Amino acid sequence: FWKQKLCINTPKCRLQLLFFAFPTFVETVQWYPHDTGMFISSSFDKTMKVWDTETLKPAEIFQFVENVYCHQMSPIARKHSLIAVGTKNPKVQLCDLKSGSCIQVLQGHRGEVLSVKWSPRYEYILATASTDSSVRLWDVRRASGSLFTLDQFNGDPSKSSSEAANTAHNGRVNGLCFTGDGLFLLTTGTDDRMRLWETATGKNTLVNYGKVVNESRKGLKFAVSQGCSLEFAFVPCGSSVAVYAVHSGELVTMLKGHYSNVDCCEFHPDYQELYSGGKDSNILAWIPTPRPPDIEEEQDSKKVCLSVIFL
């Protein structure tokens, strides 16, 4: 079962500090992947700020011409310190944390870039999603453009019109998430579809998730479980979180606890916990509980993540 563990807006959880860093919407916040000495935030005020955790003051500020929708630093990179940034401009910008400047531009999209994600397997591989209905995979060491553009029809001309060729969705693509091993990429679009792709080939696996309601005009921040034999996707859906089996497409359950729309989900692989944040100003923590003994799996499949079901 998945049950609500904690609501982080109650007397049990005390707010340590509140500081106002931006005059407008903050879209993305990320810890520095290698320690907690700093974190990075980006906003509609056209900036991305690198914060010193101890002083809570910006150590670096990157200025952009357009609103910033998303950013991400690679969780595994050891040979570079690049931050990928998606803005209202179609060009994806790569900012170097060491030099404090934008050192590279990735060109190919024709619309706003709503989501960027680095591969958890290869430190130079980046996925980007845009309002132009496309998803591109890049090797940022190459200067010749993207590796490939994902095609929902897998190159079959009989199933696609010329306008739909090389599109991942029939609408804005506003969500990206790699599986923990980096072998697959999940995408979401405003066509109310979620798709699973092989990252090595760009092939659409054609897993059917049914209708995945998605009305977000900005990035959809969903999550995938890690460290489990079975992988699950946690997708905001109104005031609930929809839980899908990644490789079968089954809608396993809907997690209900928020009083307003859910904005984001994040999975903690070490604690096997899910965190969801909503417009009701609550952050909910969800944890799995074991099945009752009478419905345990057989001995050869008794693994932690196989012995949970969802409420």
3D architecture notes:
- The chain has one domain (2-306): Methylamine Dehydrogenase, Chain H, CATH 2.130.10.10.
- It is globular, with a radius of gyration of 20 Å.
- The strands form six sheets. It has a four-stranded antiparallel β-sheet, with no helix packed on it.
- Mean pLDDT is 87; it is low at 11-18 and 295-311.
- Helices cover 0% and strands 42% of the residues.
- The N and C termini lie close together (5 Å).
- The relative contact order is 0.11.
- It has no helices and 23 strands.
Uncertain stretches: 11-18, 295-311
CATH class annotation: Mainly Beta
Can you count the helices? Answer: 0
Strand order of the largest sheet: 1-23-22-21
The arrangement of helices and strands along the chain is EEEEEEEEEEEEEEEEEEEEEEE
Largest sheet: 4 strands, antiparallel
Structural class: mainly beta
Radius of gyration: 20 Å
Number of strands: 23
Q: Estimate the helix proportion, in percent.
A: under 10%
What CATH calls the topology is Methylamine Dehydrogenase, Chain H
Distance between the termini: 5 Å
- Please state the average pLDDT score: 87
* Beta-strand content: 35-45%
For CATH, the homologous superfamily is named as YVTN repeat-like/Quinoprotein amine dehydrogenase
Number of domains: 1
CATH architecture group name: 7 Propeller
Overall 3D shape: globular
List keywords for this structure.
four-stranded antiparallel β-sheet, Methylamine Dehydrogenase, Chain H, disordered C terminus, mainly beta, single chain, globular, 23 strands, 311 residues
